[in-house]
Amino acid sequence: MDKKQLTEQDIRTKYITPAIVSAGWDIHTQVYEEFSVTDGRIVVRGRMHSRNQPRRADYVLCYQKAKPIAVIEAKDNKHRVGDGMQQALDYADKLDIPFAITSNGDSFFVNDRFGLIYPQVETEIALSELPGPEALWEAYCRWKDIPDGQAAISQPYHEVANDRTPRYYQVVAINRTIEAVAKGQDRILLVMATGTGKTYTAFQIIWRLWKSARRNASCFSPTAIFWSTRP
Q1: Strand 31-38 and strand 48-51: pairing?
Q2: What is the full DSSP assignment across 145-178?
Q3: Structural domains of the chain ordered from first start
Q4: What was the pLDDT predicted at 167?
Q5: Average pLDDT of 197-222?
Q6: Taking CA 193 as the corner, what is the angle to CA 56 and CA 53, rounded to the nearest 5 degrees?
């Protein structure tokens, strides 16, 4: 089979997704495909307006639901393995995660700009060498300087049947707040605009702190969360 004749979707289905699963990632609970990072810029022309196409990451690898660790950008085999890295880095910055990865079906190209796993910034690895969830999660916690044994960090989000996936900025707000509490910070300011889901965000923060405190009261400290709404 000539890989260069395959579409990007074929490359994903035949090579990248199997490699992710083989590395130990649960395709149903730990892998988001076509994850919306932005809804698309609104363009105003006179009295008319339109929205550009949304930007979606091909894969977002999560330790648990809504706890992203790495993003993978796929390309067809006519591209080099590192093509698309700038796009992957942009998604990683928006999701507040350290690892950006690209692949064309031949191998993975990993950007580890914080030196968490690899000695150099960019490393090409075989499809069979993709790090698993535990390895990337441990590296993520070191990157965030999170103390060991913090129950709040590993406490899952509240979830019910057919529950929606939070938007990327809600994920960042919730996770950063929980991480700040775990590191002993007791005053947190979240600035969110009207209509961006402040109630949902607050609920998930309170839920995770409350549930983790029941298992380990020492991880919960008095916390004041101040909400500011921009017009």
Answers
A1: unpaired
A2: TPPTT-HHHHPPPP--TTPPPPPHHHHHHHHHHH
A3: 3-143 (3.90.1570.30), 151-228 (3.40.50.300)
A4: 87
A5: 70
A6: 25
